[in-house]
Design goal:
The complex is a heterodimer of chains A (298) and B (87). Chain A has 298 residues and is an alpha+beta fold. Chain A folds into 2 domains: 11-229, Sandwich (Jelly Rolls), CATH 2.60.120.650; 232-293, no CATH class. Chain A contains 10 helices and 13 strands. Chain A has an 8-stranded antiparallel sheet. In chain B, a hairpin with a 4-residue loop joins β2 (34-38) and β3. Chain B is an alpha+beta fold and 87 residues long. Chain B is built from 3 helices and 3 strands, in the order βααββα. The longest helix of chain B has 12 residues, at 55-66. Chain B has one domain (2-76). In chain B, strands 1-3-2 form a 3-stranded antiparallel sheet, with no helix packed on it. Chain B starts with a strand and ends in a 21-residue tail after the last helix. Classes of the chains: A alpha+beta (298), B alpha+beta (87). The A-B interface holds A 67, 69, 71-80, 85, 88-89, 91-94 and B 51-53, 55-56, 59-60, 62-63, 69-74, 76.
Chain lengths: 298, 87
């Protein structure tokens, strides 16, 4: 195999069949997208991922690796796996899931393209055996899946069932988080579309979009997922860091009601005025954003 | 391994007169280290020490005997530094 001509993941180029502007206007968080990759881009991604060896990947996965098994005799079971037994589970017909494999050449490029915190974009790998797949579910992450080898059929909702979902959910499950329950109550399952992923296909699935998969042959796929960071988190973390440096903001609450003498100690009006001034200052807002995107320990 | 056996009204396997004998024979055959029956035996937790290749054959043996698919709940052995010494 010759070395790929591409030396970085250029998301603009990957999205060129529809265009980055159209992607953000029509698809981002709203509608699935299916894109063919150029040969050089696929070659770069494959080279960056390296050998698709279960033992190696189980050792590399920062958040561990799992084997999922379900067949005519075994009810769905999840096993933690390690470099010593990963290949055994593959040979036993399990789906293998390697969570958070460090591939900064891919994840940082995607994060930088999205303008998202790098630490929130993770790479995971799936090995699906022939006949394997996933039941209908939706994820809480924005997912970009790149088929590396083999083929897999996806049934994907055209749009999210629960837009901006706070949590993942397997349809039919009784395990529903309190945050998700009210959103799920009135949700309708949108029409689905069958898409066949073959090596070099990129599929974008917004969070909250129902999908299920089946592989007719052994399949490896790469999942680049953005575990969403919300604007609320940005503001909360940024203000917490900035205001905690101020002795006035670290002051204790006094004079909210209470004795008239204590009311003189109520600093809230002047603190809110200070906060308003800070939020009106573009430099302060830029600093809040930067501190969240590039924390000192990142 | 967890096996949730339906009540005997719905499951003829449980009604067999020699069910207990056969069940114990099955546990021996699959190499069970221990078993923990609950709810009159309808919920069985069976402790096994097996490798990946034995999962489906053992599940098949159980399925053919009681007619339900077992679920495997792997026990995570704590890392050695969680021992009782050297704190």
């Amino acid at each position: 195999m010759t070395a790929p001509m591409v030396d970085s993941l250029d998301m603009r180029r990957l999205l060129s069949p529809i265009g980055a502007e159209r992607f953000f206007a029509e698809h981002w968080q709203a509608r699935m997208a299916l894109l063919p990759l150029a040969e050089d881009d696929l070659a770069f991604i494959r080279e960056t991922v390296g050998p698709l060896d279960p033992a190696r990947l189980a050792g590399a996965a920062r958040e561990g690796a799992q084997a999922w098994m379900a067949n005519a005799f075994v009810a769905h079971s999840v096993f933690p796996i390690n470099p010593q037994n990963a290949a055994q589970f593959r040979d036993a017909g399990a789906t293998l899931y390697f969570v958070n494999v460090p591939l900064p050449a891919l994840t940082d490029s995607l994060a930088d393209f999205l303008g998202a915190p790098r630490r929130k974009v993770l790479a995971s790998l799936f090995f699906t055996p022939a006949g394997g797949g996933a039941v209908p579910h939706f994820d809480k992450n924005e997912n970009f899946t790149i088929q590396l080898t083999g083929a897999k059929r996806w049934q994907v909702g055209e749009t999210p069932m629960v837009p901006e979902t706070p949590d993942s959910y397997t349809l039919g499950s009784t395990m529903i988080t309190p945050a998700l329950a009210p959103l799920l109550a009135g949700a309708q399952r949108p029409p689905e579309r069958a898409v066949d992923l073959k090596p070099g296909t990129l599929l974008y699935v917004p969070r909250g979009t129902v999908h299920h998969t089946g592989a007719g042959e052994p399949s490896w796929s790469l999942n680049l997922s953005y575990c969403p960071a919300t604007w609320l988190e940005l503001l909360h973390a940024g203000l917490q860091e900035r205001l905690a440096a101020s002795p006035r903001w670290r002051g204790i609450i006094t004079g909210v009601g209470g004795d008239p003498a204590a009311r003189d100690a109520n600093r809230l009006p002047e603190l809110l005025a200070e906060l308003r001034a800070a939020l009106d200052d573009p430099k302060e807002v830029e600093a809040l954003t930067r501190a969240f995107l590039d924390p000192p320990d990142a | 391994m967890r096996i949730a056996i339906p009540a005997d009204a719905a499951n003829p396997f449980l009604a067999a007169p020699d069910f207990e004998v056969q069940w114990r024979a099955l546990l021996k055959r699959i190499g069970a280290l221990a078993s923990y029956p609950r709810e009159q035996g309808r919920l069985q937790h069976v402790l096994l020490d097996i490798d990946a290749g034995q999962i489906t054959p053992i599940a098949e043996a159980v399925f053919r005997f009681v007619g339900v698919k077992p679920e495997f709940l792997p026990e995570i052995a704590p890392p050695p530094y969680y021992g009782l010494r050297n704190y």
